[in-house]
Write a structure and sequence with these properties.
about 950 residues, mainly beta, 22-stranded antiparallel beta barrel, 9 helices, globular, tonb box, TonB-dependent receptor, Plug_dom_sf, membrane, receptor
C-alpha cells in the first residue's frame, strides 16, 4: 500500500514541473513618505484579469502570469496611480517588485468602494488573528479546501490545541465540549445533543465555511460561558462575481464498501433523513404510564399491535458513498444598491460498518477475568442535507445589511447485532438494536453594519435558531440460552427472548424521544475611535448588549413486551416473527405490553440570558496596547415537568456574574508580538444535566441521569503568547495557559451493585488545567527552487496537564432519583485528570500548491494523548480512549480552469479505536491486555473504522475570475 502511494506521489510531483509555462510577480507596496504598508492597494497586470490586493504588511503575489513583458498598474484610494512598464516575467521564476506610492495632492470627491477584503485565505486569517486583541488561532477556507476536509469537525482538528471526540465533538486544550462556546456568524448556537452540552460539528459542511476562528482568551465582547475556547464559524458571505459550481464525490471505505451487512427497514424517505408516520407513537396511547398500565392484558396488547412488525433484518451489499454539492453566486445592482447572493446545497449518503469487540470484567483480584464478552456488528447509514442561503445588500459604503440562513438535516440508520456470552452466568447472548436518529439545525439571522463617519461603527444581529432531534421507534431485544444447552435434535438449543415483567431500557421494547429547542437572539455592538482615524493605533471604546431566550421541550416514552405465563413457543421464534399480531394477544401463552415511562422522562426548559459589556483600549505609544473590559451576565434557568396537566418546578436558578478581562499586546516589532491575557469566565449546567431523567446508552451499556442540584462553575484564565510573523503567510507562536475552576461540572459513576453502570453529573470542588501550545507555519517563497517555493509546512503541538479535586463529598441522585451526599472515602479517587482531557495533541501537515500547473497535494498527521472516556470508581476502573495516529493524503489537479479532480485517502494507517480499562489504576493504559496479572489493563471496546478513499470532480460552469 505504501509503495503504491509513494509511486503515485512521485508521479504527481514530477508532473507538476511539466506544466510550468508562466511565472509569478511578488513584492511590497509602501507609502513613499511614512514607509507604512498600504494594506489593500490593488495590483493589476494590464490587459489581463490577473490582480491582487496588498496584505497587512503591504505584500502581494500574482500567480500564473504569462511569460513575457507586462505593464503593472498599482492603485489605492487617495494615492496617485502608478504604472510600471516592461516588467519581465520568465517561465517558472519569480519577479520581485518593491515600490512606493505618493498621496494625491487634491481632496477626494465622492469615492465608492465596491470591493470587500478577502477573509477566506490563509493570509487573511493570519492577518485577522494578528490584529485581534484576544489570543486566537484559526483556519481558512483555503486551507480546508487543500485538506479536503468534509465538514467542520474534520477541518477544526487542524487548529492548535483542538481534538475531536466521536468524529463530531470538539475539545479545546483538553477540555470537553461542555467548556466550549460555538457561534455561527457571531450568534450562539444551540446544543445539538440531548445528553450533553455539545455542538455537533459534522452538521456543518466544509464548503460553506469562510473561516473558523478559535478564541483562546476571553474578552468583554465574547460570551462568558467557556473555558477551553470560543469557536466562531463564519459562513461564506459575498461572491466575487456570478458563478455556478458543482462537485460529485464517490467514496470507498475499507472493510465497509461492497461488503455484506444486516440492516433494518424504515418507511419514509430515509435517504433524506426522514421517516414514515407508522414509526411514530400513535396518539391513541394514554399519555401517562400509570393510565396505560392499569389496563388489562388484552387492552394493552391491542395497543401493542399498533406498532408495525418491522423487526426482521435484511441482508444488503453496501454501496459506495456518494456526495453532491452545488454552489451558486449571484451579484447585481438594483439602482445604487449592490446586491449579492451565495447559495450552497450539499447532499451525502455514507456508510460505516465496524466489528466491535466489547468486554465487561469481574474486576476482582485478577485482571481480564471476563464477566461478559460480545462482538457487535455495527452498521450505520448516514444521510445529510445542508443548505446555505445568504443575501447581502450594500446600500452605500456606510450601510450594509445581510440575511444568512443555514439549514442542516442529518439522518442516521444504525443496526447493531450483538453476539457473545454472559460468561459467569453461563449464557450465550444475542441482542439487536435498531435505531433511527434525525437531527435538524436551522439558524437564520438578519444583521446590519453602520458607519457614522470615520470614528463610529455600529452593528446589530437578530436571529432565530431551531434544533430538533428525533428517535422514532428505537427497537431493542435480547435473546439468551444456556451455553451448553442442547435441543431434542442434538443441536444447540434455540435462543429465547428475554421479557421481564417490568420493562427496562436495556431489554425488549420500543423507545421514542423528541427534542425541540428554539432560540431567539438580539445583539447590538458599537465601537468608537478617539483621535485621528488615520492613526495606526487609535484608542477605541467598544460596547454592546446581548439577549437570548431559549425554550426546550423534551419527551421520551418506552414500552416493553412481557409474556403471560409460559410463552416459550413464541419467544424462541426468530426476530422477524415474534411480534406477529397473533402472538400479541394478551392471552396466556402470548405477549402483551407495559409502559416503562416515568413522569420525569419529559421536561420543559426555559433559559433567559442577558449580557452587557464595555471595553476600551489604552495605547502606550506605538508598541503597547491594553484592552480592559467588563462584562456582566444575568441568567435565569428554569426546568419543569408536567404531570397530569400540573407543572412541577424542578429547577429555578437566577444568577448574575461579573466577568472582567484584560488583554495586553506589546509589539516587539512589526512582525513580532507578545501578549498577556486574563479573563473570568463561567460554565453553566445544561438542561439535560439538570433533568432527573435516566437515559440508557446501548453502546456504553449504562444509564445516564441528571442532577437538579448542579451549580454554575466559575473559571479564572491566564494566557501568555509570543507570536512571530516572518511573512504574510508565515507564523511561529508559543502560548502558555493556566485555568482554575471552582465547582467544575464532572461526570460521576454512581455506586451501584453488580455490573450495572449508572452515571450522573456532579460539582467537584476545584480543578486546574495548564499547558503549552506551539504552532509553526513556514513557507519558502524566496527559495531558488520552484518546487520548494510551492511548499508550506504547518505544525502544532500542545502539552496539557489537568487535575480535578473532588473533595470529600459530592452531591447527586441515587438510582431512585433522590439527592444525597456521597462520601468519597474508599469509593473513588478524590484527585484525577479532568474527563476527556488529552495530555498532548499533535497536528502536522505538508502542503504543496503549484498555481502554474494546477497540481496540489498535502500530507497530514494527527494524534491525541490518552484521555478519560468514562470516569470509574473502586468497583469499576476508569475507561480511557487510547491514542490513534492518523495520516491523510490529498491530491488535486486543476484542468483548464473549469475542472478540478481530487483524490483523498483518509486514515491511511487505520489504527484501531480502542477504549481500555485502567485495572491497575496507575493512570495510564499499558500494552499488556491479555495477562491475568494485577498490572494488566483491559480492553473494553475495540474496532477499526477503515481507511477511506474519495474521488471528487468539481466543475465551474463558465469562467470564474477572482477579483480582490
Amino acid at each position: 500500500m505504501q509503495t503504491r502511494i509513494t509511486t503515485l506521489l512521485l508521479f504527481f510531483l514530477s508532473a507538476s514541473f511539466a506544466f510550468a509555462q508562466t511565472g509569478t510577480i511578488r513584492g511590497f507596496i509602501k507609502d513613499a513618505k511614512t514607509k507604512d504598508a498600504l494594506i489593500g492597494a490593488t495590483v493589476l497586470v494590464e490587459g489581463t484579469q490577473i490582480g491582487a490586493a496588498a496584505d497587512v504588511d503591504g505584500s502581494f503575489s500574482l500567480a500564473a502570469v504569462p511569460s513575457g513583458s507586462h505593464k503593472i498598474i498599482i492603485s489605492f484610494v487617495s494615492y496617485k496611480t502608478k504604472e510600471i512598464p516592461n516588467v519581465r516575467v520568465e517561465s517558472g521564476n519569480i519577479t520581485v517588485i518593491d515600490t512606493e506610492m505618493d498621496e494625491e495632492g487634491t481632496a477626494l470627491q465622492e469615492v465608492v468602494v465596491r470591493g470587500a477584503r478577502a477573509t477566506n485565505t490563509e493570509v487573511a486569517v493570519i492577518s485577522e488573528i494578528k490584529q485581534l486583541k484576544p489570543i486566537a488561532v484559526g483556519i481558512s477556507a483555503q486551507q480546508i479546501q487543500k485538506s479536503q476536509d468534509r465538514d467542520a469537525a474534520a477541518a477544526i482538528r487542524r487548529v492548535p490545541g483542538v481534538s475531536i471526540v466521536d468524529n463530531r465533538f470538539v475539545m479545546i486544550r483538553g477540555l470537553g465540549s461542555r467548556y466550549n462556546a460555538v457561534l455561527i456568524n457571531d450568534v450562539i448556537t444551540p446544543s445539538s445533543e440531548v445528553d450533553t452540552r455539545s455542538f455537533s460539528f459534522d452538521l456543518v459542511p466544509s464548503n460553506i465555511i469562510d473561516r473558523m476562528i478559535v478564541y483562546k482568551s476571553g474578552s468583554a465582547e465574547s460570551p462568558g460561558d467557556f473555558a477551553g475556547g470560543i469557536i466562531k464559524i463564519y459562513t461564506k458571505r459575498r461572491p466575487d462575481q456570478n458563478f455556478f459550481d458543482a462537485a460529485a464525490t464517490i467514496g470507498y471505505r475499507q472493510n465497509t464498501t461492497l461488503q455484506s451487512a444486516q440492516t433494518h427497514t424504515r418507511s419514509g424517505a430515509n435517504f433524506l433523513g426522514l421517516w414514515g408516520k407508522d414509526q411514530m407513537r400513535s396518539s391513541a396511547f394514554p399519555t401517562r404510564s400509570a393510565d396505560f398500565n392499569v389496563l388489562n392484558n388484552q387492552e394493552r396488547a391491542s395497543f401493542a399491535r399498533l406498532f408495525p412488525n418491522s423487526w426482521a433484518l435484511k441482508d444488503i451489499n453496501i454501496a459506495p458513498d456518494m456526495r453532491l454539492a452545488f454552489n451558486m453566486g449571484k451579484r447585481f445592482n438594483i439602482g445604487n444598491i449592490d446586491v449579492s447572493n451565495i447559495t450552497n446545497v450539499n447532499y451525502s449518503l455514507t456508510n460505516q460498518l465496524a466489528d466491535v469487540d466489547l468486554k465487561l470484567y469481574q474486576n476482582g483480584v485478577l485482571a481480564n477475568e471476563i464477566f461478559e464478552k460480545y462482538t457487535d456488528s455495527n452498521y450505520q447509514r448516514q444521510s445529510r442535507i445542508g443548505v446555505l442561503h445568504n443575501w447581502t445588500l450594500r446600500f452605500n459604503p456606510d450601510f450594509t445589511m445581510e440575511w444568512k440562513t443555514l439549514f442542516n438535516q442529518l439522518g442516521n440508520t444504525e443496526t447493531v447485532v450483538r453476539n457473545g456470552q454472559k460468561v459467569v452466568d453461563g449464557y450465550d447472548a444475542l441482542s439487536y438494536s435498531q435505531r433511527f436518529e434525525n437531527r435538524t439545525i436551522v439558524t437564520t439571522q438578519v444583521s446590519g453594519d453602520h458607519k457614522f463617519g470615520e470614528l463610529t461603527k455600529l452593528n446589530w444581529i437578530t436571529g432565530f435558531g431551531y434544533t430538533g432531534r428525533w428517535e422514532p421507534d428505537w427497537k431493542r431485544i435480547r435473546f439468551q440460552r444456556l451455553t451448553d444447552a442442547v435441543g431434542a435434535d442434538g443441536q444447540p438449543a434455540p435462543f429465547q427472548a428475554v421479557t421481564p415483567n417490568d420493562p427496562t431500557a436495556n431489554e425488549v421494547g420500543h423507545f421514542f424521544s423528541k427534542l425541540g429547542e428554539r432560540v431567539l437572539t438580539l445583539s447590538v455592538n458599537g465601537e468608537h475611535a478617539f483621535g485621528n482615524p488615520s492613526d495606526r493605533e487609535p484608542n477605541r471604546i467598544r460596547f454592546g448588549v446581548y439577549g437570548e431566550r431559549k425554550d426546550r421541550d423534551y419527551e421520551a416514552h418506552f414500552y416493553g413486551y412481557n409474556n403471560i405465563g409460559n410463552a416459550s413457543a413464541i419467544l424462541t421464534q426468530g426476530i422477524g416473527s415474534i411480534f406477529n399480531p397473533e402472538n400479541i394477544n394478551g392471552q396466556t401463552g402470548g405477549l402483551t405490553m407495559r409502559d416503562g415511562t416515568r413522569d420525569l422522562d419529559s421536561y420543559q426548559g426555559i433559559n433567559n440570558y442577558t449580557a452587557a459589556y464595555l471595553s476600551g483600549d489604552l495605547n502606550f505609544g506605538r508598541k503597547a496596547v491594553m484592552t480592559i473590559g467588563f462584562r456582566g451576565e444575568y441568567n435565569n434557568q428554569q426546568l419543569h415537568s408536567v404531570v397530569v396537566n400540573q407543572k412541577r418546578e424542578l429547577v429555578n436558578n437566577k444568577i448574575f456574574i461579573p466577568l472582567p478581562s484584560i488583554n495586553f499586546t506589546y509589539k516587539v516589532s512589526e512582525k513580532q508580538n507578545f501578549r498577556l491575557a486574563f479573563s473570568s469566565t463561567l460554565n453553566r449546567p445544561e438542561f439535560r444535566e439538570l433533568a432527573p431523567y435516566a437515559y440508557y446508552d446501548f453502546n456504553l451499556q449504562a444509564d445516564i441521569r441528571g442532577n437538579t442540584t448542579l451549580k454554575t462553575a466559575k473559571i479564572q484564565n491566564l494566557d501568555a503568547k509570543w507570536e512571530f510573523y516572518p511573512t504574510a503567510n508565515e507564523l511561529i507562536s508559543v502560548t502558555g495557559f493556566y485555568k482554575h475552576f471552582k465547582n467544575p461540572i464532572e461526570s460521576f459513576l454512581l455506586p451501584v451493585g453488580g455490573n450495572g453502570l449508572a452515571y450522573t453529573f456532579i460539582n467537584a470542588g476545584t480543578a486546574q488545567n495548564y499547558g503549552v501550545e506551539m504552532e509553526i507555519r513556514k513557507g519558502f517563497a524566496n527559495s531558488v527552487s520552484p518546487f520548494i517555493q510551492n511548499l508550506t509546512l504547518v505544525g502544532n503541538v500542545s502539552v496539557i496537564k489537568s487535575t480535578v479535586n473532588l473533595g470529600d463529598f459530592v452531591q447527586g441522585p441515587d438510582l431512585g432519583g433522590e439527592i444525597q451526599n456521597y462520601d468519597l472515602t474508599g469509593l473513588t479517587d478524590k484527585k484525577r485528570p479532568m474527563a476527556n482531557q488529552s495530555p498532548y495533541l499533535i497536528n502536522a501537515g505538508v502542503y504543496y500548491a503549484d498555481p502554474v500547473s494546477g497540481w496540489q497535494w498535502n500530507l497530514l498527521y494527527n494524534v491525541f494523548g490518552q484521555r478519560i472516556f468514562a470516569v470509574g470508581n473502586q468497583n469499576n476502573p476508569t475507561v480511557y480512549e487510547t491514542p490513534r495516529n492518523v495520516i491523510d493524503l490529498n491530491i488535486s489537479k486543476k484542468i483548464k480552469q473549469n475542472l478540478e479532480i481530487r483524490l483523498g485517502i483518509q486514515d491511511i494507517l487505520n489504527q484501531p479505536v480502542r477504549f481500555a480499562q485502567d485495572f491497575n489504576r496507575d493512570g495510564k493504559i499499558g500494552k499488556d491486555v491479555t495477562s491475568l496479572s494485577a498490572n494488566a489493563d483491559q480492553d473494553i471496546r475495540k474496532f477499526r473504522r477503515g481507511s477511506y478513499f474519495t474521488l471528487t470532480a468539481a466543475y465551474t460552469f463558465g469562467r470564474r475570475t477572482v477579483i480582490p
